[in-house]
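Appendix C: a fully annotated inverse folding record. The material below is reproduced so that readers can follow the format used throughout the book. The structure is listed first as tokens, followed by the designed sequence.
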């Protein structure tokens, strides 16, 4: 093994360098003194290999991102197609109001459609620049593919009536008192 110089020994003692790195540096210094310095071609080849590996890694990451983006786009297209095929035409003269993106919107429906919306048999989903009504089975397929398209669903996934406004307050005594005052799902506001 080549002899370490004083600076290398001090760095080793201080814990700022590793023994293997110091030994490698000492060997290279010894080769340089004897005229056996590593050739420039070998150094260039090592650098080219490193650059090639970095480029391959970047290419793999880019390909994975593009694949994920394409898959998300395909799922959104499937959800749009399901919505297009299964939508229920909303017609009527009763305004059904719902909240979306912090604003209250309304949809003109008839009484039967309003009841279906209140019971959770129909779901409101985003479609193009507006909304569409979907039956529950079709809405579940849309939810699997693009859950962000669901605007209003009055029934949770397990079949119970969902209430976005009625969140538990944490006080059991108040909850028990207010349980006697039921609010109908089909309340028109």
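Designed amino acids, in order:
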């Amino acid at each position: 093994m080549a002899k370490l110089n004083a600076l290398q020994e001090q760095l080793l003692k201080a814990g700022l360098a590793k023994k293997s790195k110091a030994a490698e540096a000492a060997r290279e210094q010894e080769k340089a003194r004897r005229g056996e310095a590593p050739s420039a071609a070998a150094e260039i080849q090592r650098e080219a290999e490193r650059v090639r590996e970095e480029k391959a890694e970047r290419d793999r990451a880019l390909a994975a991102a593009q694949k994920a983006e394409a898959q998300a786009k395909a799922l959104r297209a499937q959800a749009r197609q399901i919505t297009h095929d299964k939508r229920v035409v909303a017609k009527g003269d009763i305004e059904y109001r719902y909240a979306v993106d912090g604003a209250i919107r309304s949809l003109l429906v008839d009484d039967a459609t309003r009841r279906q919306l209140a019971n959770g048999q129909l779901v409101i989903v985003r479609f193009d620049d507006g909304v569409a009504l979907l039956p529950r089975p079709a809405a579940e397929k849309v939810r699997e593919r693009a859950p962000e398209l669901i605007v209003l669903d009055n029934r949770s996934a397990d079949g119970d009536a969902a209430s976005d406004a009625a969140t538990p307050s944490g006080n059991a005594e108040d909850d028990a008192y207010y349980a006697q005052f039921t609010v109908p799902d089909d309340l028109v506001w």
